[in-house]
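Input record (one chain):
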Amino acid sequence: MSFDSLIQKGSEFQQEGRWIEAEACYRKALTLSPGHPTAHNFIGVLAFTQEDFIAARLHFEAGLRAASSSELIFTNLARVLYVMGDWESLQHMVDHVARSGLKNEVLIALSDLAFGKKDGRKIFCIGRHKTGTTSLEKALADLGFSMGHQPRGEMLLKDWQERRFDRIAQLTETADAFQDTPFALPETYAAMDALFPNSKFILTIRDTADQWYQSLTRFHAKIVNQGKHIPTAAELKEFPYRYPGHLWDLAQANYGVTEESLYDRSIYIDNYLNHNASVLKYFSDRPKDLLVLNVSESDSMQRLCDFLGVEWTGQTMPHSNKT
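The corresponding structure, as predicted from the sequence alone:
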C-alpha cells in the first residue's frame, strides 16, 4: 500500500476504535516516509487518547521537526504539555505564538488555564484517594467552583517527591478547588496553606480505615485487571494510566512499598491513619479552616455549604466513582 493509503486506512481504523490496527498502519507509513509529520501526528493522537503522554509528546515533537509551521501539530503538542504540567515549554510555545502573530485560540485557552487565575483563597481537598474525593469534586463544581485539572496534578508526582512546590503552586493559580494527587499527599497541605493564606481545607474520610483500604484495592483491581485480583507490581508498572507505571510510582512514593509489600494492609492503613492524624494536628487550633467530611453522611452537603459560606438549598451530596 502507498503512504496515503496507509494513512487513510489507519484513520478508518482509528474512527472505529481499532487503535492497534490504526497504529500499525501509521507506523508502516513511517517506514515508507521516515519522519513524515502526518504519520507522527496520528500516532501522537493515538498515544494521547490512551493517556501515554510521553509517547504522544515525542511523536508531536518529531512531527514539528518536519513541519515546524503545522498549527495542528503545534496545538496537539501544547495539549500534551498542558496535561504533563511542563509549564516552561508551554510558556515557550505561547511566546512563540505571540511573536509569530498566529491566532491559535486553543493555545490561548490553554495559556489562560495554565497561567491565569491569581485570586488568593483556594479550596483544597486533602483526603486520601478513595475517600469520596470524586463526589466532593462534583459537589464543588455544582456549587460553582472551578476545579483544577486532575491529570496535570497527577503528572506533578515527582515534584511532590522532591518537595518542589513551585509548579504545584502554579497549578493552584488556575482554578478554585483541587483534589487528589498531589494535594492528597503529605505536606502539600502545609505548603499550600503558606502560599495561599485564608484558604479552606477539606479532609475526606471513610467510616473506618478498613473500609477505605477495601475500597482502594477494589478500585485498583477494577481498573487494572477487571477486578480479577489485587494488582501485582508488574501490572502497576505496565498499566498506562497517565503513563506506564504511574500507579507504581505513586504507590512507592506515597506508601513506601516494595514489590513484596505492595498493598500490605497494615502499611496502607497506618499510612491512612497517620495522614489523617497529621492533618488534624496541623489544623488543631484553626477549626474554621478545616472540615472533616464523610460524604456518605446525610448532612454532608449541608456541612460543606456551611463551611464554605454557600447557601444550602436542600441539595444532597452526589456519589461518584463508588467501589
